Amino acid sequence: MREQQQALIKLLTQLLHDYPGIGFASDQDFRFCDVAINLGQDRRPVEADIAAKLLSDIRQLTLNGQKVKATQSSIHINVWVGEHSKRISSEHYLKQHTDFGSLSLSNVAYIGDSLNDEAMFEWLPVTFGVNNITPLLGKLSSPPSFVTAANGGYGFAELAEMLINSR
């Protein structure tokens, strides 16, 4: 996985020469299978048309005969090769660490903020989005079942407070 990731970084580095000022996410060293391109994590957000062109250009790439996959989140373009998703990883984790056969998915909740969370919104019956997902709702076939009033981390805190108060 690391070798494939390094090859993907090399391929993307070449592409990013056409996009001055855009680079990899500051947390890239902590990623295992994907590559994250920074669109707005700790920088002024990249203009939407430039981000869309970059995403399109990435999706035209191949690595070792495999199509490169990419999705845009609220702050990154996440890029990978193979079958990886938040749902696949979460399901794998639950199968390893719970009695998955008797686990009711209605007891599992998820909160997200962007298009790359759609697989989780589709899979689980109890899902939440933070408010900054609102402009993207029309692009989601499976939106979250509830959207917080606050954006970003404040929306996560809003949900946490609501859950604590409901106990």
TrEMBL record:
Source taxon at top rank: Bacteria
Keyword set includes Hydrolase: yes
GO-annotated molecular function: hydrolase activity
Keyword Cytoplasm found: no
UniProt keywords, alphabetically: Hydrolase
Protein name: Haloacid dehalogenase-like hydrolase
